[in-house]
Write a structure and sequence with these properties.
Elements: H1 15-22, E1 29-33, H2 37-47, E2 52-57, H3 60-70, E3 74-77, H4 86-96, E4 101-106, H5 111-119, E5 124-127, H6 132-143, E6 148-149, H7 151-163, H8 176-186, H9 191-198, H10 202-216, H11 221-230
Parallel strand pairs: 1-2, 1-3, 3-4, 4-5, 5-6
Helix pairs in contact: 3-4, 5-7, 8-10, 8-11, 9-10
Length: 236
């Protein structure tokens, strides 16, 4: 994975990007969410000259807990997050904070995943190999109520949308709690560990697990994990 960062932290940003930031009397409030600490710090340094970075989170559940109190204007979030994936977190954040803009910044270039992200209400979808100025541009567009998709994946998204304009994945039939349980189990956590994360009893976790398996006609935990990956509940 390559992150485009030059030694000054500013050289990758065109002068136009810096001028765009100057039109804001108060800097827009940005929150960052990524499970890789080094990348979080890199993105913070890249964005700080232009925006106020109000906070960071390293997993989806921490993001849900912190964002409403921090009140960011834009949340830049990775898709593949532990405990709660970025898509699920972003969907819930749009319900909790309708005015907040969600921009996905990820290594995952799956066009179907990008389509799902934009359908969930995201304002942008970029790849981590995108130029740094592209992220600045996407944030400014989102603040104006517009959306942005990196050209690196836009054509693939068009094909994905044409091929499947009305997706009806089996994951959509699950409740938010069931999707949480499935992701955590697919991450390799035991029922006791899942119960600790969700603040429920192991018996409750077992109930959700076997209810999902029954509904989806899955025969084993291995099949449940395969389902989590195929349905993008577990995103890498």
């Amino acid at each position: 994975m390559t992150v485009n960062i030059d030694s000054t932290g500013l050289g990758l940003f065109p002068r136009a990007c810096r001028q765009m930031s100057e039109v804001f009397v108060t800097l827009p409030r940005i929150m960052l969410a990524d499970d890789h600490t080094i990348l979080l710090e890199a993105f913070r340094k890249l964005l700080e000259p232009f925006f106020e970075i109000v906070g960071t989170a390293s997993d989806g559940r921490a993001l849900l807990e912190a964002a409403p109190n921090l009140k960011p204007d834009v949340i830049v979030v990775d898709v593949g997050m532990p405990l709660l994936n970025g898509l699920e977190a972003g969907l819930r954040l749009k319900e909790m904070m309708p005015s907040a803009k969600i921009i996905f910044l990820t290594m995952n270039d799956d066009p179907d995943l990008a389509v799902n992200a934009m359908r969930s209400g995201a304002s942008g979808y970029l790849l981590k190999r995108s130029a740094a100025a592209e992220l600045i541009h996407a944030i400014h567009l989102s603040l104006k109520g517009k959306s942005y998709v990196t050209p690196q994946i836009a054509r693939g998204m068009e094909k994905a949308f044409i091929n499947n304009p009305n997706p009806k994945g089996r994951a959509k039939a699950l409740t938010p709690r069931q999707r949480e349980v499935v992701q955590l189990l697919a991450e390799g956590k035991s029922m006791k560990e899942v119960a600790s994360v969700l603040h429920v009893t192991p018996r409750t976790v077992a109930f959700h697990k076997y209810r999902v398996m029954e509904e989806l006609k899955l025969q084993s935990t291995a099949e449940l994990i395969q389902f989590a990956i195929k349905s993008r509940i577990l995103v890498t």
